[in-house]
Amino acid sequence: MALKKKPVTGMKDILPAEMEIRDYVIGLIKETYRSFGFSSIETPCVEHIENLCSKQGGDNEKLIFKILKRGEKLRLAEAKEEADLVDGGLRYDLTLPLSRYYANHSNELPAPFKALQMGSVWRADRPQRGRYRQFMQCDIDILGEPSNLAEIELILATTSLLGKLDFNNFTIRINDRRFLKAMAAYSGFEEKDYDSVFITLDKMDKIGLDGVRKELIEEGFEESCVSKYLELFEQIVRYGSTTTGADHPVMVQDRYVMAPSPIPRFDNPKLNDAENLFLFGAGREKKIYAVPPHTKVESLAFEDHPFVREDFEGKRCCICGATGVYMTQTIDPVTGKKAWQCSDTDYCAERLEEGGSDE
Questions:
Q1: Which tens digit of pLDDT belongs to each residue from 119-132?
Q2: Residue 92, CA distances (Å) to 52, 95, 141, 205, 334 in order
Q3: How far is CA 260 from CA 16, 114, 155, 291, 312, in A?
């Protein structure tokens, strides 16, 4: 049989010129991360199939290169499903091997343990230009350090490396699950479902907002919960910013997310450190939210899409003349032109009774 010259589909040969560059970059990566105290580790490329299929890898679990049992263990006649034929698989990332490694060796490792791992991973994905079935990953992790210091050090180490590689004007995106969990709770998801929801949410760059919505509903989540959760993301994707008027969510004491309905977002800042008690009803959830006096309340926002309340500068109520209050646009009954009017009609009426004002 003639020798097949080309690599298996989705794999590639690396020529000396490219290998020289790769070796240089790998050396620089290891040198930089070691200067921050990270220790190199290595894990096998083959993992137990039970670990690989533990429902922690999302869609990657559908892309496992599985390994058949061998010898007496391979009983084709008795096999009823694929699981009866396989006992191992090639790792699809470095996270799962690290979890098993740390669980097995934690008593032999320092605490906290700063791990550096580089190695090939395999995914039975559809090969595309620049996308291979075998590729190298690099992970740094700090285990056993619960404070934010671990996250800070990871960011510092990564930015130092990128600088040494001559990358400029890059952006570090930080994903804080506390926000995602609070938003999920606010939307009505059960805590046991958070991980499943987040795995689907992570696909937004690949399948888009509509794809995420479809997949969450197909997984059995209530459409009302899905719509409420994706609303803020949808506003940013479609309009470039959040567009909620009333009912813009707020974070209370850096922990709870609630809807301050019917307060317009124009007045959200007034909830922070207020001197009085606020009570809000959440009809669908059959709850009443109480915000005690002098409580920290911040409108939900994203680092690249900050909270901005409506701007009514230079606008005056066409009925009572008020300024600096939340207004709605209307049609002036006298001129027939667009005008602004106090949203709080009781406040407007009170000002009229007092004779109005030009303040």
A1: 999 999 888 887 89
A2: 8, 9, 17, 20, 70
A3: 62, 42, 35, 10, 21
- Please state whether the peptide bond connecting residue 44 to the residue before it is cis, i.e. omega within 30 degrees of 0: no
Q: Which amino acid is at 229?
A: Y
CA atoms within 13 A on the CB side of 275: 0
Q: Using alpha carbons, select from 75, 94, 72 the residue that is nearest to residue 83.
A: 75
What span, in angstroms and rounded, lies between the C-alpha atoms of 242 and 192?
A: 28
CA 272 to chain centre: 26
| Residue 83 identity (one-letter amino acid) | A
* Exposure string over 232-269, b if 16+ CB within 10 A, otherwise e: bbbeeeeeeebebebebbbbbeeeebbbbeebbbbbbe
- The pLDDT averaged over each successive group of 10 residues in the chain (359 residues) is 89 95 95 95 95 79 89 78 86 94 95 95 86 93 89 92 90 78 82 88 85 91 87 65 64 77 76 86 64 87 69 83 82 75 84 68
Count CB neighbours of 303 within 10 A. Answer: 9
Sole residue written with tokens 């059959």: 286
